[in-house]
Specification:
With about 110 residues, the chain is mostly helical. It has one domain. The protein has 5 helices and no strands.
Length: about 110
């Protein structure tokens, strides 16, 4: 004996599926997704150009895929936040700016 049907028709089954997925997924307007994708591609292009110019951070994070490049960039900055010694990799101008911020903060304290 076959089991009882859960849905009366394929249309009812499809309606239930759409209701479940509507609750799980957020719909993003296509134009917003295209803008975000364009920004990701622009970031990847800039990192690739920096790598060709010899930038050390770009060598660390740049891959063939924009998605993987973004993941590596995120991981790199997480590691820099956890290990302040990695801040020594800053270019001299940024390092001086960081040092000035520390010294002005100590003066205020």
């Amino acid at each position: 004996m076959p089991r009882p049907k859960k849905y009366d028709s394929p249309a009812a089954r499809q309606a239930a599926f759409r209701e479940r997925t509507r609750a799980e997924f957020v719909q993003v307007p296509k134009q917003d997704m295209q803008k975000l994708n364009a920004k990701l591609n622009a970031l990847h292009t800039a990192i690739t150009a920096a790598r060709q110019a010899g930038d050390a951070l770009a060598f660390e994070v740049c891959t063939a895929s924009p998605d993987t490049t973004l993941e590596r960039l995120i991981d790199e900055f997480k590691q820099r936040a956890l290990h302040p010694a990695r801040g020594a990799l800053l270019p001299p101008a940024l390092k001086q700016k960081k040092d000035r911020a520390k010294s002005s903060k100590s003066i205020v304290d």
